[in-house]
Structures are given as structure tokens and as C-alpha cells.
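INFO  loader      accepted 1 record
INFO  loader      residues=325
INFO  predictor   begin
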Amino acid sequence: MAQMNMKEAIRDALRVELKRDPNVLLFGEDVGNVGGVFRATEGLQKEFGEERVFDTPLAESAIGGLAVGLSIQGFRPVAEIQFVGFIFEALDQIAVQAARLRYRSGGVYNAPIVFRTPYGGGVKAAELHTDALEGLLAQTPGIKVVIPSNPYDAKGLMIASIRDNDPVFFMEHLNLYHAFRAEVPEEDYVVELGKANVVREGSDVTIIAYGMMVHTSVKAADELEKQGIKAEVIDLRTVSPIDIDTIVASVKKTNRAIVVQEAQKSSGVAAEVIAQISEKAILHLEAPVLRVTPPDTVYPFALIEDQWLPTPNRVIDAVNKVLNF
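INFO  predictor   done
INFO  writer      dumping C-alpha cells
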């Protein structure tokens, strides 16, 4: 196996699919010769040519519209939205046109599109560059929302997303692009969409997270273990659909749970997870399910974002609350 960081793993997944399927196209702002603002697509235009990997104008609505049109014609577009905050310009194309295409056409057409976008805080980026906006798409029927936390998952989930016959919104945390290296198979493999992963076994409390918050939760679990508390950490990997079966199995074992997300508190993935736990496992709970999230405010400027984002200590506090309920 090769050692890759998450950016390299995503690039490798794109290379695998561009090589395997001539209908896969990769496009967006500066993804060609420059290789993207974070160099995630570096070298792919040179390898596969300008007809397969190409730049677009600075117009997200055009990127989304091009992706929908190409998908109807039998292509599998991978369209990059340069930063997550720019999706507002393309929400009609993503959430209305792509997500509803199969329904609107009575199954005649589908939209096998991957919309890639970086997101995530802790990097002191400019406004609209780091927001966690997965909740906007997670509430949209017809589109899957995928958020990897590590290089192995990133490659397998990207390959699975490109091969999926419906649109996928694929979010890549900025702080994880270069955070660490891990063993990643160089060959073709997939990680199943809609399937969570238990990244740490435990018996006292379940911590449910995704993206960067998986690592925040694991750090908290490491500290909790020093206190004799064994926390189980679940990485959702796909936040729409949610793998409630894995969550319920864990809650039946631990009887307590918290959910950690980087997005603001209200109406997000954490709220949906808690609702489903209440519907399907409430009799196994010995305490309310708590959320560890930022407050319901606009994402702050860089000077105070570290105080705004969830931390291991905040996760530990929430665990202690449910244990002492």
C-alpha cells in the first residue's frame, strides 16, 4: 500500500475513475493546469487531456448547469465548487435540477454527478470559505452527502460516489487535506455509501461524528479513557443517508450518546441523528442525547474561530453530563 494524505487519496480516486471510464469528466475553476486551489487535481489534465479535465469560468451556476446537461447525455461529471460557501450560486442546479432529475423524468434520466467542495474551519480562511453547509443538502431528497475523515475512506468513497447513478455532494475538510498520511491501496476499491464506521470500540457512551469532528472526538475519547471511561466513536462518513442501524446497535450497548458536528446547532445532521435515535432506540437510553456544536451564529472571522469550533474538552464535558445524568 501507498502512504497518502487525504488530498492525494482523492486525486488517486479521480485518476482511477478517469482511467477506467471515458465518460468521467472533471471540471471547475482552476482544476486544469493549476490543479485546483489546493492542488487536489494536480497533473490530471496533463495525464488525461483538456477534453477530460478542464477549467470553467468563475460561475458556479454554469458549473452546476453543465454538470446536469452532461449527465443527461451519458457522462459522469465531477464538478468542483471551489469553496463550500460558493454553492449558493449553484443551489438551483444541485438541489433542484440534479437531485430531482430521476423523479421528474419518471426514471428516464438520472444525474450521476459528484459535486466536490472543500469546507471546514480551523484554517483561518476568508468568509464563506469554511462554513459547514451539509445541512442544506442533507435535507434535499435525491442527493447523497458524503464527508470523509481519512485518506482510505476518501478514496473509496470518491470512487463509489462517481459510480453512483444519483448525484453526490462530496465535502472535503480543509484541515484534513494534509493532516496526516495513512495506508491507502493503490488499486481500485470502494467504500460503501450510507455505511458508518466504528472507529473506536467502547462500552460507556457513543460519540457520533463526521469529518474533522471524528478526530476531535477520538482525542476526547483518549482523554476519557484515562478517567476509566470507554467511549465508542462512530464516523458517519455519509450524512445523507444516515446509517442509523450502526448507531442504534452502539446505543443499545452503551445506553448513552452525544453527537458532534462542526455546523451550527439547529436543524442539522446532529438533530436528525438524535431524532432517529429517539424514534428507534429511546428505551435503551439512560440520558438525553446531547449535541456538541458551535452556536447558532454566522461563522466568525478568523480571530475567534478557535473559540467557536467544538473542542475535545467540550466533547468531554458533554460525555460527563450524560454519564452523570
